[in-house]
Amino acid sequence: MVTPRTPCRRSGAGRSRDVNDVQTTGLSRPESGSTVEVVTGGSTAPAHSQVESSLEQELVLEVGVDASGRRVRLSLGAQVSVWWSPVEVPVRCRPYQIVDVRGGTVPTWRLRPLGPAVDGDRRATPRAPLHVPVGLAMPSGLLLGETADLSEGGLRVIFPAEPTAGFGDVAHPLPDTGERAVLAIALDGTRVELRCRVVHRSRLADGRRQLRVAFEDLSDEVRSRLRTTTALELARRATR
Q1: How do residues 24-56 score in pLDDT, each as one tens digit?
Q2: Which CATH architecture has domain 128-238?
């Protein structure tokens, strides 16, 4: 009698998991039948789509729909970022170019890869290295700094070394861990104020100061802009 194969198990207690749960397909490209998000440079929100066919040289997706359920129109040659969540890896992203659009009952996009798949630090909200000006609201005005990285959930910002006034007291102290703050940043050329909470404050070896903040009370529009900005930067780095 042939003994049926059983899923591999972790040592000790825990859920069973087949050794084929995590496939190369899921890491380098989304699997057929899976749901993906498609982000374009000219959009502030992703299109949701389903994978019809997934090959290394070609990805076939249903034409995506926006938040209102309407089909998204993209032209031939458009460059997009495709996002998906394989098993045990929260988010993956790969840049593609649309090479064909086919009609029918279920219209489809045919995409050609432009670079390898990358992940955003294996976080639920992918983080991209990005350097753009940012201002921290202070009683005396905006304290200017520069982002070091950005995600949909927060950012890390670097400020100049502490200036002093008079007898050496700090002129612009940064908020402490756990305190709330407001940051101003430009997204898609538009100034946006982001309410946030400081999760870490530290000083670099050269005297500059850095804050790690988590965003709070984001609108859907701002969240989509952050996601798009992150996706485009990761895609740009992947195609270098």
Answers
A1: 567 889 989 888 888 886 554 678 888 999 999
A2: Beta Barrel (2.40)
